[in-house]
Amino acid sequence: MDPRRWQRIQELFHEAVALPIAERDRFIRERCIDDTVMQDELRALIASHSSVGALMSQPVDRASGDFLLREAGFTDSAGSTDPWIGCSFGPYVVEAMLGRGGMGVVYRATRIAGELSQTVAIKVIAPHLRSSPAVNQFLQERHTLALLNHRHIARLLDGGIVGGVPYAVMDYVEGRRLDAVCDDSTTAIETKLQLMLQLCSAVDYVHRNLILHRDLKPSNVMVNTEGVVKLLDFGTIKHLSVAASDSLMTQAGMRPVTLRYASPEYIEGYAITTAADIYSLGMILYRLVAGHLPSGMDDLSIGQYLRRLRSLEPESPSGGLNAPRHFKDDLDAIVRKAIRYEPQQRYLSVAALADDLQNLLHDRSVAARRGGARYSAGKFYRRHRNAVIGVGILVLASGLGVWAVARESEVLGEETRRAEAGVEEERKLAHLLLFDYFEQLKRIPGSTAAQRRAVAEALTYLDSIPASNDRPLLARDRVDGYTKLGNLLGNPYEENIGDGAGAITTLEKAITLAQLLLASAPDDLNDLQSLAAAEQSLGRVYFGGGDPRQAVRYLQPAAQTSRRIASLPQVDSATLAQAASVVDSLGDVYAQEGAVSLQDPERGIAAYLQALAIDQAGLSRDPACARCRRGVALEYWKLGMPTEALDADQAARYYQAGLETLAEFAPEDQATPRVRRIDTVIRQRLGIALLAQGSSSAALTMLREVHARFKAAVDADPVDARARFDLAALDASLADGYDQLSRYAEASAINHEYLDCMQFLVAQDPGNKTWEWRRADALLRYGRGQSRLGHPEQGDRQIHEALSRLVALAKPASAENGLLNLAATSLLTMHGDAVQALTFAQRAVATERPPSVNSILTLADAQRAAGRQIEAGESARQALELLAVHPRSIRNSADTARARRLLHAAVQARSRKTL
């Protein structure tokens, strides 16, 4: 159905159900005068809505066990018996209806297998939605349930299609609805909170799998006979990724929603985050504690309902509890924080909400309360009443001795104050030198030489501070100072002066100091951040230097620490942005393009999605957080690159989402160097994608614009290593574009610039493996261009030198698969040693898990060149099988043609051998 039509139907539906029943039919006729089909669709939706309302309003028959509050033989609004009763879904026979919602109907069924039988629940999509986008949502629910495995989530057992209608078979939960259990007068408040904690555990697990539920309510939660909570319905899920952000249902204006438990932003149709599910959990908690939802919210239109929510100050849900005042005040604070109208004012995560419920149960301070020292002291007293009383007696008994030591304490206190004053002066000096001075210096174009001298002085100063002078704050400043200096020395992801070895030594000092600090205070947030930042920086230095395995040693614990930091309650947006940056760095080591990554796109994409979720949480908390917005744009860019091999259109959507995110900055912010650089690299990637798809002219237009930006950055500071490498990487792609259009002179000029950049970088940091192999690549490209332009002797000399360097770099066992592929391809292209090329190609395939199409095709080329035609055909066949899995990848058509040529040659060779 046309999305605009669905949008119109939804709008009319909400208006109609807000009217008295007697006025609805007249309203439908007047608003759909010339569209009888729409009239029928509206009447069917309203009938379904009314039957669900009537069904839900039936009192719970606790004596019957009441599984999903439904009974056999339920009749629809027309009075006919349900047609599925008695039918078979594969081996399952439907016995009775259990429940009906806006999206589907659930039945009880029995599976008969030999002498064994099993009772299950079967969900079937609602009849009026079987030709709508809701079918895709139903299939998505079924697929998602198959991936989830959690004690508090009902399992998916089976699924299939009957008569063109998809169905899902799930655990049959014998028990009662969550609200029915909590409405029982024998259920203590502690039990209600424990049940709520089980539900939070399930939802937190769902969120950690990057899924939103979007329809949490008591009718979707069962408590079995053993007191275990089971979350049942996932009919409205949304995956936290761009690929699923605009589902067909959303595009069609279909947003299934249970109004009284749905968040305001979901009702209004805005983009939602995990905060929407947290709101629903808060409303469920209110309902379980109070026995009802906030008053004054019945029979309201959508607009009236939202206005009521905006000004909602609900009465105390705990008012009817027989509990101490402090307990009720804490519980009310938790509920009110969870259901705040503004998403950024709610709990940052479900785990944070669960932590506060645990604190409440154990009489600890809850984060939702802004209590002072008296509040915390009261909590401590109640937890340790007997011990406090005992200590009080001892204090009274020793009171006379206090006066005797008072004078000595005064003297010691004065000495301590003087010592602390000296430390504070040290801190001021350190901060001025290591932070303020360098921040100003880095903003001056062409100041790299001055920075190099300043770094040497600053390191001498840091090393000179005696360990005996350390206080926690000064020690932390030293950690941060070493980290900042290490980045400036040789972190290729920041402005640096190209001293990789010096960066490693300096950052190791930062990590050692940070670990010493955490040994005495393991949960200190600032120290955790300092350690993660130092480990991230060292990991980036190793990765930028061509050693991803060493990089992972530091980035894995850094990412683990950062995910822990992001889950803490009430961390601010700046903290979340830094945590996302660390997790993002781990994704780079797994999935970043180039010779040195570990080529594990699945882990890389998972890390990028986690970083994206953290940045989005920070942006939700503070929409003005520039760093979070930049982080979101970067994550979209990085998600696009590994996705190009899977789905070209999806990769383009990621890039476009990144550009749209940056476009939300104010114009003056878009002109800042950081935002402009992110915008540039995303445009660079779009240009490369166009180039790979054969759109050479369009690609060149975009890449030339990017080239001008990078060239300007190099001209502004000729010794900035990062700016130089940005230009070099762009040159390689731009030269490919000129080659595709047979503009060889322009390609040669760009390759010459590429070579100059890499010569400069190798001279700055001779031990950098990435610089070394890229210099060889640049020399090879330039040599080929020279031969093509009529200078064969010069070209051959450069090609020979480049091949020698690539072979030497690829021979060690530590060589990465990207370098191995480059060496093998170069040898084959230049008619070099086919046996050596085959060795490199075999090692490249062996180092990838699983091997990529490019590696397999390089192996096939090498096998063919080495005379192993049959093996080449088998490799080509394997590549074709992989290409069939991802037919929408950017290079699919070119790689498919290449694989077919190799397979055809192998078939011909086999035929000749047979003859």
In summary, what is this structure?
This protein has 915 residues and is α+β, with helices and mostly antiparallel strands. The protein has 37 helices and 11 strands.
Assign the structural class, choosing from mainly alpha, mainly beta, alpha/beta, alpha+beta, or little secondary structure.
alpha+beta
Strand order of the largest sheet: 1-2-3-4-6-5
How many DSSP-defined strands? 11
* Name of the CATH architecture of the domain at 175-383: Orthogonal Bundle
Outline the structure in words:
By secondary structure, the chain is α+β, with helices and mostly antiparallel strands. Among the domains are: 1-57; 175-383, Transferase(Phosphotransferase), domain 1; 419-545, Alpha Horseshoe (Serine Threonine Protein Phosphatase 5, Tetratricopeptide repeat), CATH 1.25.40; 815-915, Serine Threonine Protein Phosphatase 5, Tetratricopeptide repeat (Alpha Horseshoe). A hairpin with a 2-residue loop joins strand 1 (88-89) and strand 2 (92-100). Helix 20 (525-544) runs parallel beside helix 22, helix 21 runs antiparallel to helix 22 (573-591) and helix 22 runs antiparallel to helix 23. The longest helix is centred in the middle third of the chain and has 44 residues, at 399-442.
Structure characteristics:
11 strands; three-stranded antiparallel beta sheet; globular; 37 helices; 915 residues; Transferase(Phosphotransferase), domain 1; six-stranded antiparallel beta sheet; alpha+beta; Serine Threonine Protein Phosphatase 5, Tetratricopeptide repeat
Describe how the helices and strands are arranged.
Elements: H1 3-17, H2 21-31, H3 36-57, E1 88-89, E2 92-100, E3 104-113, E4 116-125, H4 134-147, E5 156-162, E6 165-171, E7 175-177, H5 178-183, H6 189-208, E8 211-212, E9 221-224, E10 229-231, E11 238-239, H7 242-245, H8 248-251, H9 264-267, H10 274-290, H11 302-310, H12 325-338, H13 350-361, H14 373-383, H15 385-397, H16 399-442, H17 448-464, H18 472-490, H19 500-520, H20 525-544, H21 548-567, H22 573-591, H23 601-621, H24 626-643, H25 648-663, H26 667-670, H27 673-692, H28 696-716, H29 721-740, H30 744-764, H31 769-788, H32 792-810, H33 817-829, H34 834-847, H35 853-865, H36 869-885, H37 892-914
Antiparallel strand pairs: 1-2, 2-3, 3-4, 4-6, 5-6, 7-9, 8-11, 9-10
Helix pairs in contact: 1-3, 6-10, 6-13, 10-12, 12-13, 16-17, 16-18, 17-18, 18-19, 18-20, 19-20, 20-21, 20-22, 21-22, 22-23, 22-24, 23-24, 24-25, 24-27, 25-27, 27-28, 28-29, 29-30, 30-31, 31-32, 32-33, 33-34, 33-35, 34-35, 35-36, 35-37, 36-37
